[in-house]
What does this fold into?
Amino acid sequence: MTAPGGSTLHTSCKLTVVMTVTLARAPATTALTVVLPAYNESRNLPRLLTRIGDVLDRLGQPYEVVVVDDGSTDDTASIAESAVRRMPVRVIRHRTNRGLGGALLTGLLEAIPRSGIVITMDADDTQDPDLIPRMVERIEAGHDVVIASRFESGGAEIGVPLHRRFLSHAASAVLKRIAPIKGVRDYSCGYRAYRSDCLRHLVDEHGEKGLVQERGFACMLEVLLKVGSNGARIAEVPLVLRYDRKKGHSAMQIVRTIRRYRSVVQAHRVRYRPVRPRPQIVPLEKRRSSEVAHRILSLLVAAVGLLLAAPLMVAIALLVRLTSPGPVLYKQVRVGYDRRRGQANGGRRGRRGSDTGGKPFTIYKFRTMYLSDGDGSEEAWTAPDDPRVTPVGRVLRQMRLDEMPQLFNVLRGEMNMVGPRPEQPTIFGELRTSIDGYAHRQAVPPGITGLAQVRHHYGQSMEDVRRKLRFDLEYISERSIVADCRILLRTVPTVLLRRGAW
It folds into this structure.
C-alpha cells in the first residue's frame, strides 16, 4: 500500500482473518500503536520498520507496530515477523486479500483497546516516520486527529507522476468544497494519528464492522468524514511524500477510486443530513387550496386502487381467515393530522384538553400476526423476524399487501396517499420527547407511502428514525402535487423489489 497521490488499491475479495479482534474493555498497554496495512511490501517494509523503530525508540514511549499482512503473495509476513527480535512487532495475517479498507479495519480494531494513540501509515516507505513525534505532540496538545498533509505549508510530493499529482489536488479541492471539514486540506492521506477515544466513539456509533466499510482506497475519506461529523478537533502537519523511494508500481485504479469517493460523500450526506427547520407557516387560504388539491389526487388514486385491487383483497381476506384464527382486519389507533400546526397558534393545546400531537384515528390493515393473550392494545415496533407474524402475514408484509385496507382510510379523509407514516400514540409521544422536531411531521396528513418509505429502509433504531424524519421534513418543506406523483411512481419499484418499509 502506498501514500496518497499514488496509492495501491488492492483487489477486493472475501476475507478470512486469522485472529479474531474485539473491542473488549482492555486497558491501554502502550502509549501508541502504529498500524501498517501491507500487501506485497517485502521490498519496502524492512527499511520502513527500521526507521519507525529508530524514531519511536528516541521518543521514549511504550509502542507497538501492528503489521496487517493482507493476503500477500511475497515474504511480507515473514519479514515483519523477523523484526520482532529488535522491536515490538505483531503480525496479523489475512489469508486472502480484502483491500486497504479490510486491512485498516483489522489493524484499528486491534489497536484501539490497547493504545492511547493510533498511528496509521502506508507500508511502502514513502512517508517519513520522523513526523510521528510531531503528530503525537499535537494529539497531546488536545487534537483528536492529526493528518500528515501534502497540502500543508512545507509539504511536497517527490516522484509522483504529474497526472496523479493533478488528480490528487483536484480531488482535494472538490472534497473541500462539497464536504468541508475544519482544519482539513488533505482528505485522502493515510498517514494519520488518532486519539483512541475518538475512534472508540465511532465504534460505539457504527459498530465494529461499520467502522470501515469501504474496501478500497476511499476508506481513508470514509473514516475522516465520520470523525469530522462527530466534531473531532483535526490538525495537519506538512508531509513530504517520497514516492521515489517506493519499490514496485502502484496498482490504484484512479477512475474506480474517484467513483467510490463520490459514493462515500453521498452516503455521508444522507446519514448526517441536518434536520430541516420547522416547515414555514403557510397562509391559511393557500394551505386550504393546497390541501384540496392533495385530497383530490388521493381520492382519485384510492378509488382506482380499490376498484383494481378488489379481487385481490377478497382473496387475501380468505387466506387470512383460513390460515389463522382471528379477524381478517387489524385495527390500531394512530396519530393523524394536526390541523393546528402551521396555523397561528403553532400547535398549542387550543380547545383540546391535552396535546396528543394530532387527531387520533383508527388505521386498518390485513391481520398478519397471531392473536395475543392480551387485548391487542400493546404498542411496540415489529422486529424484522418477529415470531408473532403468521406465514401468510410474512408474505403480505414483504409485498406490502397488508396495507391495502388503508385505502379506506384515505377515502374517509383520515390519510392521504402520500405523507409521513402515522405512528402509534405512545411511541409518538416518546419520539416527540426524544427527537427534536419530530412533531413537525404532523403538519400534513399522514400517508400510505412517503419520501421516507422510498428513500430509506425499515426503521430498527433511533438513528433510523432520525434519518426518516429528515426525509419527512424535506417532503413537507417541498410538498407539491408533482412531488406526490413522483413518490407514487417510485413506490411501485420499491414495493416490487421489496425495499424500504411502511
Summary: The CA atoms of residues 72 and 287 lie 65 Å apart.
